[in-house]
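Reviewer comment 2.1 asked that we show a complete input and output for one of the modelled complexes. We chose the nicotinamide-adenine-dinucleotide case, as it is the one discussed in the main text.
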Amino acid sequence: MRLAGKRAVVTGAAGALGGVICEHLAREGARVAGLDLDPVGLDAVAERVRTHGVDAWTEAVDLTDFEAVQAAAERLIAQWGGVDILVNGAGGGAVSFFHEMTYQTWSTQVDRNLTTVFNVTRAVLPSMLAQRHGRIVNIASVAAIAGGRLVRGATAYAAAKAGVVGLTKALAIEVAEQGVTVNCLAPGAQATPGRDNDTTERREALLSQIPTRLLGEPDHLAETVVYLASPATVNVTGVILPLDGGHSI
Ligand SMILES: NC(=O)c1ccc[n+]([C@@H]2O[C@H](COP(=O)([O-])OP(=O)(O)OC[C@H]3O[C@@H](n4cnc5c(N)ncnc54)[C@H](O)[C@@H]3O)[C@@H](O)[C@H]2O)c1
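Response of the prediction step:
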């Protein structure tokens, strides 16, 4: 029970990785608040969290909406008194080749993958600073550090996720003396249900670019989140950790 009594917020909680992260945090004793666009998915995750004997709180909210996020965080903090752990997992890519990309596609990708991180972190950070303790784990992508080699047409996604990398490092420095750590995972392709429809050729093309020839396991990623949220990493901050089987070497 490395996180007994801790209060965690997970964005993208209804998603493939977010749900697994919520469960791993709950298994270690943390209460979990899930934020996502998808209310049905949030209900299912809350149920899984409660089976571990901890409190679950959810709110369906568009995390690109600054005011709505502030309001949701205020409601949560009024109830829980503060937040110890924030996992910024909401996001997702869209394939669009740069020479034909619309402004709408660009701004949607930046909003979904970077502005959401600003909005939620901005809403939660003051409570962490007030208590002089907090753990922020951002989920970027290998695309941020190795371009979009796994998926062509990912420039907007890669740029937004690279923004998350920059935000992680700059914020880590800004809050380091106040007991708040800020770290970032840069996952490669994960074995989430979204990959189940890959053709054999598509799967081989992916694996051929990954030295270990393995997709990432969501359970392993979630364990890394738990580690970065745990007391063992009090002196670990500003780290960008690729979970990509060596793809970005
Ligand atoms: N799955 C992978 O292979 C992989 C690889 C690298 C990085 N990532 C990153 O990991 C994170 C989780 O990925 P996943 O595979 O679980 O994706 P997913 O699509 O299953 O989950 C993403 C979740 O984010 C939510 N979301 C998106 N925009 C939102 C918004 N504006 N407001 C509220 N919620 C919003 C979606 O509703 C969804 O539930 C994403 O940031 C993704 O970019 C995933």
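DSSP finds eight helices and seven strands in the chain. We note this here for comparison with the apo prediction described in Section 3.2.
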